[in-house]
Design a protein that fits this description.
Layout: H1 3-18, H2 22-29, H3 33-40, H4 49-58, H5 63-67
Helix pairs in contact: 2-3, 2-4
Length: about 80
């Protein structure tokens, strides 16, 4: 799994757990819905740390809490 996929999966899981829709995540985080949809889109590869931080702020999570999920422990090598 790539870092991008792990980030997208983590946000999907948190939103599902909290009952938050994609547009609501954008609104509480101060980013555009298109930014959130782009982050969740499997075809997009780049993920901004600033965007991750804003989304975490909206979800009232620290970056440490966000990245402490098991999916980040076994990521594929990004340098090919």
């Amino acid at each position: 799994m790539s870092v991008k996929d792990a980030v997208a999966n983590r946000f999907r899981a948190i939103c599902k757990e909290k009952g938050i829709k994609t547009n609501e995540l954008a609104n509480i985080s101060g980013v555009t819905p298109s930014t959130v949809y782009s982050l969740l889109d499997e075809r997009r590869r780049d993920v901004s740390v600033i965007t991750i931080k804003k989304l975490c702020d909206g979800l009232e999570l620290s970056l440490a809490e966000f990245f402490s999920a098991p999916e980040f422990n076994a990521l594929d090598q990004e340098i090919k």
